[in-house]
Amino acid sequence: MKSTQQTTLRTRVVVSGGIGVHSGKPVRLVLNPAEAGTGLVFQRTGLANGASRRIEARHSKVTMTDLCTVIGEDGKNLVATIEHLVAALRGLNIDNCLIEVDGPETPIMDGSAAAFVEAIDRAGVSHLDAPRRFIKILKTVRIEHGRGYSELRPADRNARPDSFRLDVEIDFDNAAIGRQRKILDLDPLAFRRELARARTFGFLSDVEKLTKMGFALGASLENSVGIDGDRILNPEGLRFSDEFVRHKMLDAVGDLALAGAPLIGAYQSYCGGHKMNVAVLDALFADKKAWRFVEAPVPHRAGARADLGLAVSPAFMPERG
């Protein structure tokens, strides 16, 4: 089985220069190594009287999914827009990380996971003396909402033992987006090449309404793809011809990471989003017969290391085709 040992970062790394896409305020983010079994945990600093609070990146901690994924406890100590960062950690097979953030929102950076991938590369990866734990999907669970759905199901018989396949389709009544579908077997190389650089997007017609509600105060063409009618407003255009569905898949990787461990199986969605991504996790864990934990064997030979596909090389590769 690939990636048999738990991982963490080799050293602490600071992500600076970012703002919250909704708050518009500067945010300082620090990624720290963590012990085996810690998982992905946020340390929310900057609270009243210098206090801080730890919040696990888990589906049970989600408080809102309307425009982004928000976690917190009892409606307090919230951390919003966690999906791109958590997607980068899960996409690059980082199992354990303590994430310090000094405000109520992680930085949006350029609207993708690229800056977080670069930060993880700067920190490096450390392999821990503990087996990697997976959640194996045993039966299909499905959530439907209107014409959309999200579904988790067991892996195909011929899939590799730790396989997780994503099949995401979007369908917008908009000529700039239209109907797009992408299927991807998730691993670090595929995440880097196919998903990490895909940016969030929004419609110019929604900006005034959102700002009146206190959202999107930091949104700009520097951190999102802007759409006006059937036109792309960004002078540089799109990074991929199907950047919109790639970003929806990136969001799904981040939201599904809130399972608390890598999933073995398959995910499919049509016209989904944050709300349905989290809802399908809730449905999975509500049925004890739908899943189980499995552990990967840890190599016993001296100096053995798992291949995570994180060799030192350019962080991103050009789109093929």
UniProtKB/TrEMBL annotation:
GO terms for molecular function: metal ion binding; UDP-3-O-acyl-N-acetylglucosamine deacetylase activity. InterPro entries: Ribosomal_Su5_D2-typ_SF, UDP-acyl_GlcNac_deAcase, UDP-acyl_GlcNac_deAcase_C, UDP-acyl_N-AcGlcN_deAcase_N. The keyword Repeat does not apply. It catalyses: a UDP-3-O-[(3R)-3-hydroxyacyl]-N-acetyl-alpha-D-glucosamine + H2O = a UDP-3-O-[(3R)-3-hydroxyacyl]-alpha-D-glucosamine + acetate. Keywords: Hydrolase, Lipid A biosynthesis, Lipid biosynthesis, Lipid metabolism, Metal-binding, Zinc. Its cofactor is Zn(2+). Pathway: Glycolipid biosynthesis; lipid IV(A) biosynthesis; lipid IV(A) from (3R)-3-hydroxytetradecanoyl-[acyl-carrier-protein] and UDP-N-acetyl-alpha-D-glucosamine: step 2/6. One of its GO terms (biological process) is lipid A biosynthetic process. One of its GO terms (cellular component) is membrane. Its EC number is 3.5.1.108. SUPFAM superfamilies: Ribosomal protein S5 domain 2-like. Zn(2+) binds at residues 84, 247, 251. The active site is at residue 274. The keyword Lipid metabolism applies. Catalyzes the hydrolysis of UDP-3-O-myristoyl-N-acetylglucosamine to form UDP-3-O-myristoylglucosamine and acetate, the committed step in lipid A biosynthesis. Belongs to the LpxC family. This is UDP-3-O-acyl-N-acetylglucosamine deacetylase. It comes from Rhodoblastus sphagnicola.
